[in-house]
Design goal:
66 residues, single chain, alpha+beta, binds copper (II) ion, 4-stranded antiparallel sheet, Alpha-Beta Plaits
Length: 66
């Protein structure tokens, strides 16, 4: 599972935009959002860089978590 902390994901709108961006980049990915923790959890994604880039291009600042 890939984990990103996205500090500037602050509401349901942000969560929706990020979910869509990730799914567009990788349709196989399953996206779970923990808004309170500002975490984006992604299962089944092939390429961490592709997913991270997609979140960045959507206008957010993803930090990959160990
Ligand atoms: Cu928002």
């Amino acid at each position: 599972m890939l984990k990103f902390h996205v500090a500037d994901m602050s509401c349901g709108h942000c969560a929706g935009v990020i979910t869509k961006a990730v799914k567009d980049a990788d349709p196989e990915a399953t996206v779970n959002i923990d808004l309170a923790a500002h975490m984006v959890l992604i299962e089944g994604a092939a390429d961490v860089n592709k997913v991270q880039q997609a979140i960045r291009e959507a206008g957010y600042t993803p930090l990959a978590q160990p």
